[in-house]
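[Meeting: bench + compute handoff]

Bench side (C.D.) handed over the final construct sequence. Compute side (W.E.) agreed to return the predicted structure before the next meeting so the bench team could plan truncations. Sequence as handed over:
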Amino acid sequence: MARSVLFLLLLNTSACCGFGFKGCSQNFPMTDVMWCSNQNIANLSEVVGMIPDNITTLNLSKNKIIVIPPGSFSQVPGLKRLDLSQNHLVSLKGGEFRGLGVLDCLNLTCNNISHIHPSAFDGLTRLQTLLLTHNILVTITPVIFNFLPAIQELDLSLNMLKAFSCGDSGGSSTLRRLDLFANNIQRMFNVSGFPALEFIRLSNNSKLELQADVFASNPRLTSLLCQGVKAEVLVGPLAETKKNLSRVAFSLFVEKSPLTICGLLKGMDRLKRVEIDLKGSRLPPTNSSLLDCDTPPVVVIMDAKLGNVAQLSLGRGNTSRLYLINCGLKQISHTTFDGYRGLKVLQLNQNKLDIQPDAFKGLTHLEFISFDRSKIRDIDPNWFIPLKKLTRLSLLKNEITELTSNVFSALTRLEQLYLQFNLLKYISKKPFSKLRRLKKLNLSLNIIDFIEDGTFQDLTRLTYLDLSGNRIKRLTPYILSGLTNLRQFVLFNNRLHFRSYESPFINLTSLELLRRVMHCIYKSVYLFICLSSMSNLEYLEMNYQGPGGEGIGVIGPRFFQGQRQLTSVAIGHSIQVDFHADAFVPLVKLKSLYIAGVLMKTTNLSAVFSPLKSLKKLTLYRADIDALPANLMPPDNTLEVLKVQSNHLHTVDKAMLDALPRLRVLDITENPLTCTCDNAWFKSWAIHDTHTQVSYLYSLYCDNDRRSPFLWQFDDKACSYEQVSFTLFVAFSVVDVLFVCVCLVWHTQGPTLRYLLLLLRAKLRGRRGAAGAKFQYDAFVSYSSKDEAWVMEQLVPNLERPAAGAPRLRLCLHHRDFRPGAAVLENIEAAIYGSRHTICVVTRHFLRSEWCSLEFQLASLRLLCDGSDVLLLVFLEEIPDLCLSPYTRLRKIVRKKTYLMWPEPQEQDAFWVKLIDALKDNEEEEEEEGGRGGEQDLARLIG
């Protein structure tokens, strides 16, 4: 809890002092717009708490917001547009939008809202548009309109409303548009509370019933859309309501319904547009005409199975725009449109057409005709002979394989021609001859691999040409001849290959805007030849070039030669792109440079970008960059936006940012930033700098610190004490070295060090033998537990319980005579100094025992310190010298007379006699031996 509070405090501080926003990015240069879309935001308070109060548009769509805490937006009182669509909101309990007094648009579409409290929109006095599409509302109280005095549009489509009524309990005098599409509404009880209502959509409420006077209080109602509803709903409304309608939409299955289209339109004297869904109806066999009454200017008929229509209308209307969408039309003859002599727009989309040569005879006023998705394979030039005024022709998504010679030559006024999504493989025989007024030609997404020379010779006014998505391998000046006014040229997704001597665009001297995204270009090293004459070029895009080929290649020093007017360049997503150091020298007016999906790890970025003094925006996306140089841009640069997403940057160079004085936006997302002291300054700068915004600052991950997953969480306090840290580092390094040295010495000279420690301890305690000392035991026996059987069966009986006449000795055994509760080391020391002698029963087990080694060392210490000859070695087995410790070898050399070997059975009696004699107290010998001093023995030991 405490951590959350601290975080919120940090957010509030950041909001006041810097441009760091959690999950959001402030738009630039429109700084009053904030984008927080698709950032997995769940806690709204954390995000809104950082938003500055000057924001007017806030987009929070596509997140995971479940609850809006009351007053969440109170600190952005100037907010006018709020988008909360595609979240997980479940209800509005009231107070969520408190403080948004100037909000005019609220988008809550695509949530899970099932309940709205009557006061949920309290305070939204200026709200004009409320979008609640695609929720799970079952009911909605009209009281909410009492809190929305300025509402003009309400969208409740795609909910689960069963009824809708707005009368005395609530309403709005300003609501103009009401959308109730695709609910479960069965009855419209009352909409008298909306006197200003102009548009209402009730489509796809299949069980809807309307009372005759339901719209009696809506004199301004002009649009009534009831598709997917029983056609009878249009019979009920009062005559006055019908008279005011200018747009109506309904569904009618004419085969089985007693109603007719004209019958439903009766009384609608001001009708301007009618949209009819025929629900798969066929034309009644008894009626040769579908519309035998006056028809409005715009007629839309869809979803029918009309077949061969002799005549659609008797011609008593003034229809100028006719849309026959998916109507099952098959054969069209010259009589089909006899009733529509004044047609200006005709759309015959999604029909499997068989068009007669004279089908459009008499349609001399037609300006736009469309045959989209009509499975047309061949185009007959005779279709267009009567269409002298046609300016737009659309034939997209058909099955056209060839354009014949002069196929469009009759359309001398044609300005726009759309032929994309067909099966054209080659263009020859000059199909576009005489189209001297054509301005826009789209041939994209075909399979064109060949274009004949002079194909576009007559298109002298063409300004837009799209050849993208084809298989074109070569373009020559002869192919493009005549395109002197071309401004937009789209060539992406082709297989173009240019040779060094080619200049395919040399004739495009008036080209002002060239959009060329050339996908799958095999090799474009020599494109500088193509561009050399395009002196007015302003926009150049060359993304996605070279899959399956060799890519763009090298952008050399003459690539942009003469292109002084270029303001925007996009290059990337190509197999190979190399930039010459002088590649951008001619681009003195370049404002935006986008480079993506290329390898620039070894590119000298400083040299490449040094000429770009006017550059405002630089994007280096997925460019494989490990570090940005301090002199990335020239000294007098004007860069405002720098985006380096998805590279390999670990640190941010302070000198580089200091050299960009006008930088307003820095995007460094999706880089493996390290949370170390090298980036401590960047964290502080990003949070507190008031001039530059770091996009999605609070979403920047640490690549090396699991304790701090985000950069803003990195604890950089220690980084402020750099000198102290360095001193501590040196000190601990020295300690580590000393510790390692001590460990090595202990490992190699451990026994010697143990002797020194024991000697020091004995001297400090003053434990030195004195003449006439009284001992509690005659001997302390040091042995391994694995040799205990020999001690108890041989040593103890022969020394403590000898035969008659032999002296009895008292032995100290650790398992028998050690004092309970005392430390083992204290017991060993007391036993050695409390015994006249120490007997070491030496075996291989003895040499491996740590405790036996300690007992031997303490006994040796007594020899060294007191000069007392107390140590007696009894070997129970032959042990090579190499297996003996240095201390055992010393004892063999200095006191060989006390060295005894356990003999064969026949010599054991003599063994016991020798051992007992050795244990006899001989003070004179001890004094003589002690006179030499233990220091000499210690010196020999160390030597």
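W.E. noted at the follow-up: Residues 773-942 form a domain with the Rossmann fold fold (CATH 3.40.50.10140). C.D. will use this when planning the next construct.
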